Amino acid sequence: MARLKAFERLASQHADIADFLLVYIEEAHPSDGWISTDAPYDIPKHRCLEDRLKAASLMKEESPSCFVVADGMDNSSNAAYGAYFERLYVLLNQKVVYQGRRGPEGYKISELRLWLEQYTKQSSSTVLIEV
Length: 131
What we know:
This protein is α/β, with parallel strands linked by helices.
């Protein structure tokens, strides 16, 4: 969740050409597991969908202008997109047209920004951005 503000800025700057969606997946650093020393929240491992939805609501509080959904407990979105820990995607007409590298090292808002700027020059269609 550390990069939500940068993502939200990008979303607001490109809201005219894209719909942005945050997909909350399995917690990468649960407080009762592999703990991150700089984690701003105390989020234990999700034991049920209610736990995951509660954690997703924290993401919504941090990024109120973005749509937030939660992956199911079967982690099907995470598995389908290889999103663990975090990843940026652009979908256009139900096809992946941009796939960022896996985070945290490969999660680069600047690369997505460049892609969106290039896309804007080429087209006037709306795209869906998923994280």
